[in-house]
Design brief:
The chain has a single domain, classed as Winged helix-like DNA-binding domain superfamily/Winged helix DNA-binding domain (Arc Repressor Mutant, subunit A). Helix content is about 60%, strand content about 5%. The chain has eight helices and three strands, in the order ααβααββαααα.
């Protein structure tokens, strides 16, 4: 069915599906080429940019929860891409550093999808960017997803999803479905 035959709501949903599909395809490419998820690559790039960094600072930098970042760092450390070391000044603090293998992997990784998107977005007038932001925030609210933690990077949803966020989202979706009036079937 072509776009002209679809209603406006269906065309909006089709556009959202194309966006989701583009993000998913890029995430698969990233995973296939270097075995990283988008949040893992974002963490590596932030560590490369900022140098020796605490997990809490990294979590704030890439806009993910500390528990999510701790899991990401564990996976990166097990692959030898980062190391955790006690701070020189405060032995209680643990800092994360990039290994040579991590730096090499970053150099080989495809550029994040959001870099291209940011370039295109920056070419728009400020009022256009503001309208896009307002529209996307409204869509997130309509999908009951505005409270879900998300980094400003484009990656497949479950690749960086934190189990608690996913659980909260599913609980809200189930309770919303239970609260809505039941639809009568033809059998009744």
């Amino acid at each position: 069915m072509n776009g002209a035959m679809l209603g406006l709501e269906d065309r909006v949903i089709a556009a959202l599906r194309r966006i989701t599909r583009a993000i998913d395809l890029h995430s698969r490419l990233l995973l296939k080429r270097c075995g990283l998820t988008a949040p893992q690559l974002a963490a590596l790039r932030a560590i490369q940019r900022l140098g020796s960094i605490s997990a809490g600072t990294l979590a704030r930098e890439i806009h993910l929860g500390q528990a999510t970042v701790t899991g990401i760092l564990g996976r990166l450390e097990s692959r030898g891409l980062v190391v955790r070391a006690r701070g020189d000044r405060d032995r209680r603090s643990v800092l994360v550093e990039l290994t040579p293998a991590g730096a090499e992997l970053i150099a080989q990784a495809p550029s994040p999808l959001q870099e291209r998107f940011r370039q295109e977005l920056s070419r728009l007038q400020e009022w256009e960017r503001t309208m896009i932001l307002a529209t996307l925030q409204r869509i997130a609210a309509m999908m009951d997803a505005d409270a879900i933690e998300a980094a400003p990077l484009l990656g497949s949803g479950l690749a960086g999803a934190h189990e608690e966020d996913l659980s909260r989202f599913l609980e809200r979706a189930v309770s919303s479905a239970e609260e809505s009036p039941a639809v009568e079937t033809e059998a009744n």
